[in-house]
Every structure is written in structure tokens, then in C-alpha cells.
Specification:
There is one protein chain. By secondary structure, this protein is of the alpha/beta class. It has 2 domains: 1-32, no CATH class; 33-238, TIM Barrel. The chain has 6 helices and 13 strands. It has helices spanning 85-93, 113-122, 164-167, 182-194, 214-224, 234-238, and strands at 5-8, 12-15, 18-22, 28-31, 35-45, 55-61, 81-84, 99-103, 126-131, 145-150, 174-179, 202-207, 229-230. The strands form 2 sheets. The protein has a 9-stranded mixed sheet with strand order 7-5-6-8-9-10-11-12-13. A 4-stranded mixed sheet has the order 2-1-4-3, with no helix packed on it. Strand 1 (5-8) and strand 2 form a beta hairpin. Helix 1 crosses helix 2 (113-122). It starts with a strand and ends in an 8-residue tail after the last helix. 34% of the residues are buried. It binds iron/sulfur cluster.
Length: 246
């Protein structure tokens, strides 16, 4: 049987769906599920965090509330396609990969990110959330590994940090500082010490790619005896110059 053509006020013409009444043109109005705005879904090597090196499916959601000066994913501010939670899950499952990361942009800008994470967990995936740290993580399902950025002054967004997030992190979670220069390093190391962050979970220090030499950052950490993990973005070494989807 050919499904009836309807019109969803969010998505436009669609097939099927539950009827809600008649549109002005006489077409059936249908109720569509809440949607996600998705920049890209791709299979790659995890380039950051304690899972660096593992195959991972990335779901990059569109939109961000911040504008870090060194942002390398500005294309995710606006571009994307509308997908239901079920459609995203189906595309993720095509890769048969146990590790999934929800990233952005800022994934927590979209309310449907929460049911998406719940569904991925329910299907047995290990779920990582990478957030810019400007929004509350309080509604993120337990079981998700939360990787929370703390924005340094060099990003231009350090006054947007939602510090209360750090109070609810657990041992499985991670805190990430992206460091552009010595001033950022000094500020970040002060936060680590004053807030006793390494007591809560792993703390990552990552140099801004192409701006701060990783060896300089590593030397500062060693000289100070700071108990943080220096990381470099592995995907940028594997695929130098690639602009997206790696
Ligand atoms: S939070 Fe991430 S996506 Fe948003 S502007 Fe900063 S680096 Fe870019």
C-alpha cells in the first residue's frame, strides 16, 4: 500500500504519520517526532580524550552558543539536516561500532540530544558527550561519559564557563582545557589547583593546533609537576589539512 502524503509544519511534505487535520491546501497535517539538526555523522578514529585511538562514530549537531577564536568546526554553526532520533540511531548503527561521541557545535543546545543519548545507551553503545562547557550538563543521562571543556582566556569565551558543571562530574568523566599560550596555561593550571580538579576526574590539557607547540605545553606541565594529561589531536596528525568528518 502506498502511504499517504502529509504535511508536517516543521519538515514539509512527509509520508505517513498520525493525522492531525487538514492543511490550508487540503493536505493532511501530520505530527512529526521532535527533530535534531545534524551537521554530520561519520566513522573515524577518536582523536582526543582518554579514548584517543579507538574507532568511534561521531554525531556532530548543528549550532553553538560560543564563538571560540580558534574554533575549527565553524561549519557546524549553521549547516545541517533535520533528522529524528530514530534516524540518527539507524545511521550510527550502520557502522557497528561500540563507541559513539555526541559533539558539535554545542550538542546540549538541542533538547533532543538527551533522548538520543538515552537511546544509544539503551542499545549498548558507550556514549561520550563533548560539550563546550557553557551549558548545564545536569540532564545528561547517567552512564554517558561527559567531556567538559573549560574555556581559557585565549578562547575569548572564558566568562561563559558554567562552573557548576564541574561539581557533578564523576571519575569516568573528563575536563578539558584547550591552551593557546603561556597565559592560558597559567590560568588553567591555577584552576586545576585552586579547584582541586584532578581529585574529581581526569584533566586534559590540549594545545591549540598550529598555535602552541605541544612540546612547549608538555615542558610547562613537567616543570610544574601538574597531574594533568597532555593530549594532541590525533586526527589532525592522521589526516592533516582535512576540514571535516575526520
Ligand atoms: S565551543 Fe566548540 S564548536 Fe563552539 S565555538 Fe568553541 S570550539 Fe567551536
Amino acid at each position: 500500500m502506498v502511504p499517504a502524503l502529509g504535511f508536517c509544519q516543521r519538515r514539509g511534505p512527509v509520508l505517513g504519520g498520525g493525522s492531525q487535520g487538514q492543511g490550508r491546501s487540503g493536505s493532511r497535517l501530520v505530527q512529526c517526532p521532535p527533530m535534531l539538526w545534524v551537521s554530520e555523522i561519520f566513522h573515524s578514529i577518536q582523536g582526543e580524550s582518554s579514548r584517543a585511538g579507538w574507532p568511534c562514530v561521531f554525531v556532530r549537531l548543528t549550532g553553538c552558543n560560543l564563538r571560540c577564536v580558534w574554533c575549527d568546526t565553524a561549519y557546524a554553526f549553521h549547516e545541517g539536516r533535520s533528522m529524528s532520533v530514530g534516524e540518527v540511531v539507524a545511521e550510527v548503527e550502520r557502522y557497528r561500532c561500540p563507541l559513539v561521541e555526541l559533539t558539535g557545535g554545542e550538542p546540549l543546545l538541542q533538547p533532543e540530544a538527551i533522548p538520543l543519548m538515552e537511546e544509544l545507551l539503551r542499545r549498548g553503545r558507550r556514549v561520550l558527550l563533548e560539550t563546550g562547557g557553557g551549558l548545564s550538563i545536569a540532564d545528561v543521562p547517567r552512564g554517558v561519559v561527559r567531556i567538559v571543556d573549560v574555556k581559557c582566556p585565549g578562547s575569548g569565551e572564558s566568562d561563559r564557563n558554567h562552573w557548576a558543571n564541574l561539581e557533578i562530574l564523576e571519575g569516568k568523566d573528563e575536563i578539558k582545557f584547550v591552551v593557546a599560550d603561556r597565559r592560558d596555561y597559567s590560568w588553567a593550571s591555577q584552576q586545576v589547583r585552586e579547584r582541586d580538579l584532578t581529585r574529581r576526574c581526569s584533566v586534559l590539557f590540549s594545545p591549540v593546533h598550529g598555535v602552541l607547540h605541544p612540546g612547549d605545553l608538555a615542558r610547562w606541565v613537567l616543570d610544574d609537576g601538574l597531574p594533568v594529561r597532555v593530549q594532541i589531536q590525533l586526527h589532525k596528525i592522521l589526516w592533516p589539512g582535512a576540514e571535516r568528518g575526520v
